[in-house]
């Protein structure tokens, strides 16, 4: 689980294993290590190196290796709205996904616990959208949310949006798409935690004068923290880097661009890999800092 | 804490309580009254409905019908958190995300009682665990967790304390120690205790009154001594200790006694110790009340005497020897003889006579399972 991967109290296993097995362990680890080196470490170094290259525009466009920190200042300067929007959208979408997923995961994990067939069916339904490509599903939503669709007529009839307003292309539509596409990553870890929740703790809470809402806040919620942490990380991180939903080709518009959108544009359209890589490294660094702070806080807080 | 104001518990009354689950009835029209301040044990095998009874009293199950009164007040429709009742759960159910001290203070905090941590600390001191308040439940042994669970319930000064097999997970030595402590605490705080257990020794040792449950009903209720001395049904006679039971037709009945005939022997019971006086009845005797003799003892009418039989098994259990004696046409009789050097030195296969005083016989209201009514 992601939570375990980020927790800082994983015990250090001092291998007291005999020397003989050392070679076998190494042999078993080797494919993984090679894979990590080739597809993570080397690309990461290349990424950072590219982001620091110096761009020479005259006489023709060329690049030379350098420590050009100015690249970072430039992208922050140019793309600050998109950077802030990315994390803003990611935050809002994660919170909405949590609010929708928690009751659902609680129902599947606790309420239908004694009906395993129904439980398995519901878990399958949560995963079912993955059976179809997420691009196709997002395009389908684009149709459904477009100005002339029957669904939008219905929403207009309800008065949720004005008669001449569009929903497609707004921040709301992008957040809707993000929540829709990433919600299983929230529901599943919550479900695995709540499925193991011992309801005897809840009975003990109500026996000790706690009303149902108090039992939820003082017992259920703290005991489901591992699921909440992994769920929010598994949704927040990919959402912050998402480049599909916010794109003009899908649910967004020029006003909804996120970091991912700009990386795609810099790399593929305006042929500016320095800007694209600097933006990528910035995104990665910011996420690392945010989740470190988050896990530290959630892990040590008493929540009483 | 002992020197503080003595809190007296409330009495508990169950009126006609029934609980149906899909496919079976866990409780069958149960009536029960537990006076305030009493240590009451519900004793029975698993699946007899004792835990369901406890959960209905705690409010964790809703009865299909019937009423639960606590201190005269109808609490049937009250939610668990509204009832002045606390439970020591079988699994202890200590909150793993809180310290021991916070666990104990939980109930006090919910009711917004002043100074919860001080009172929680006092409760921990009472169970002699004041020094581990900052630890987590996972760091405690089973016995310590049990005492914390007890402190967490007692600190709220409930009118009624429910104990759901709280000693089940402990080893024998610790269990004995906890039994003594539990009884001492109950006398000290003066609460009403309702203790659910399948351990007959535990129930008899601690409770003022024991109710033996079977198949959703109370079969017999009374002081432990009375229950043991005069069980009224075959189930109680077998569940609470061991019994030798003899089934036969009544052949003689006078003002003071009733006799049945089994395999050519007359087995007699005092009339006032027999539930039924006619037809086919079962008469029993406890193994430790019976003795055996190497010669026909030729005893008077105040004794039941059966023989000749053969010893087919001898078991040494420490304080006593258990002899299994096969008597032709009667069946097997178990006799316990204390190892105090008085019983005859005897070997497997020896021919013996068994006897006991008529006043130790008891007559049952029903017949043991698997016996046919011969009337």
Quick recap of the structure?
The complex is a heterodimer of chains A (304) and B (375). Chain A has 304 residues and is mainly α.
Structural features, described:
The complex is a heterodimer of chains A (304) and B (375). Helix content of chain A is 70%, strand content 2%. Chain A has 304 residues and is an all-alpha fold. Chain A has a single domain (72-300), classed as MetI-like (MetI-like fold, Orthogonal Bundle). Chain A has a two-stranded antiparallel sheet with strand order 1-2. In chain A, helix 7 (171-195) runs antiparallel to helix 10 (225-240), helix 10 (225-240) runs antiparallel to helix 12 (273-300) and helix 11 (259-269) packs antiparallel against helix 12. The longest helix of chain A has 42 residues, at 70-111. Mean pLDDT of chain A is 88; it is low at 1-17 and 300-304. Chain B has eight helices and 20 strands. In chain B, strand 12 and strand 13 form a beta hairpin. By secondary structure, chain B is an alpha+beta fold. Classes of the chains: A mainly alpha (304), B alpha+beta (375). The A-B interface holds A 198, 200-201, 203-212, 214-215, 218-219, 222-223, 225, 303-304 and B 58-60, 79-81, 85-87, 89, 91, 93-98, 102, 106-107, 110-111, 152, 156.
């Amino acid at each position: 689980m992601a939570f375990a991967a980020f927790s800082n109290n994983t015990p250090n296993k001092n291998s007291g294993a005999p020397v003989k097995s050392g070679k076998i362990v190494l042999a078993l680890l080797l494919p993984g290590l090679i894979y990590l080196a080739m597809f993570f470490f080397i690309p990461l170094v290349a990424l950072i190196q590219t982001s620091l290259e110096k761009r020479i525009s005259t006489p023709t466009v060329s690049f030379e290796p350098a420590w050009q920190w100015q690249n970072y200042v430039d992208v922050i300067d140019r793309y600050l709205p998109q950077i802030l929007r990315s994390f803003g959208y990611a935050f809002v979408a994660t919170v909405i996904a949590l609010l929708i997923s928690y009751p659902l995961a609680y129902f599947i994990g606790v309420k239908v616990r004694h009906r395993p067939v129904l439980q398995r069916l519901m878990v399958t339904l949560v995963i079912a959208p993955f059976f179809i490509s997420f691009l196709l599903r997002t395009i389908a939503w684009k149709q459904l949310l477009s100005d002339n669709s029957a669904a939008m007529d219905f929403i207009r009839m309800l008065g949720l949006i004005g008669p001449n307003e569009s929903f497609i292309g707004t921040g709301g539509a992008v957040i809707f798409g993000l929540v829709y596409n990433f919600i299983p990553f929230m529901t599943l870890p919550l479900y695995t935690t709540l499925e193991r929740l011992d309801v005897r703790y809840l009975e003990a809470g109500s026996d000790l004068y706690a009303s149902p809402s108090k039992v939820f806040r003082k017992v259920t919620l703290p005991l489901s923290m591992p699921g909440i942490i992994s769920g929010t990380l598994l949704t927040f991180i990919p959402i912050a880097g998402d480049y599909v939903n916010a794109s003009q080709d899908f649910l967004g518009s020029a006003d909804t661009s996120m970091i991912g959108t700009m990386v795609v544009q810099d790399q593929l359209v305006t042929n500016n890999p320095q800007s694209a890589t600097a933006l990528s490294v910035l995104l990665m660094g910011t996420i690392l800092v945010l989740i470190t702070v988050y896990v530290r806080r959630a892990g040590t807080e008493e929540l009483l | 804490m002992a020197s503080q104001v003595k809190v007296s518990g409330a009495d508990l009354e169950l009126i006609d309580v029934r609980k149906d689950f899909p496919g079976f009835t866990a409780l069958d029209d149960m009536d029960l009254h537990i006076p305030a301040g009493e240590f009451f044990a519900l004793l029975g095998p698993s699946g007899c409905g004792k835990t369901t009874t406890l959960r209905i009293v705690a409010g964790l199950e809703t009865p299909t019908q019937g009423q639960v009164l606590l201190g005269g007040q109808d609490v049937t429709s009250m939610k668990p958190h509204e009832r002045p009742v606390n439970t020591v759960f079988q699994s202890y159910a200590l909150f793993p995300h809180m310290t021991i001290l916070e666990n104990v203070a939980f109930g006090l905090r919910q009711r917004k009682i002043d100074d919860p941590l001080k009172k929680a600390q006092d409760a921990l001191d009472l169970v002699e665990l004041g020094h581990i308040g900052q630890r987590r439940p996972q760091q405690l042994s089973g016995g310590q967790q049990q005492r914390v669970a007890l402190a967490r319930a007692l600190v709220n000064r409930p009118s009624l304390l429910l104990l759901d097999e709280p000693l089940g997970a402990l080893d024998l030595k610790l269990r004995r120690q906890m039994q003594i402590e539990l009884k001492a605490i109950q006398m000290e705080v003066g609460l009403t205790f309702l203790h659910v257990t399948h351990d007959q020794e535990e129930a008899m040792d601690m409770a003022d009154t024991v109710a033996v449950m079977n198949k959703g009903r109370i079969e017999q209720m009374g002081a432990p001594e009375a229950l043991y001395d005069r069980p009224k049904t075959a189930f109680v006679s077998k569940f609470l200790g061991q019994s030798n039971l003899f089934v036969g037709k009544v052949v003689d009945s006078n003002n003071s006694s009733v006799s049945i005939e089994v395999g050519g022997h007359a087995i007699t019971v005092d009339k006032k110790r027999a539930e039924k006086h006619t037809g086919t009845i079962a008469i029993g005797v406890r193994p430790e009340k019976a003795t055996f003799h190497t010669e026909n003892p030729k005893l008077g009418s105040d004794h039941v005497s059966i023989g000749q039989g053969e010893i087919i098994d001898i078991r040494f259990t420490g304080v006593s020897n258990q002899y299994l004696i096969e008597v032709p046409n009667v069946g097997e009789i178990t006799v316990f003889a204390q190892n105090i050097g008085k019983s005859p030195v005897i070997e497997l296969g020896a021919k013996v006579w068994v006897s006991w005083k008529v006043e130790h016989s008891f007559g049952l209201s029903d017949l043991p399972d698997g016996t046919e009514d011969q009337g």
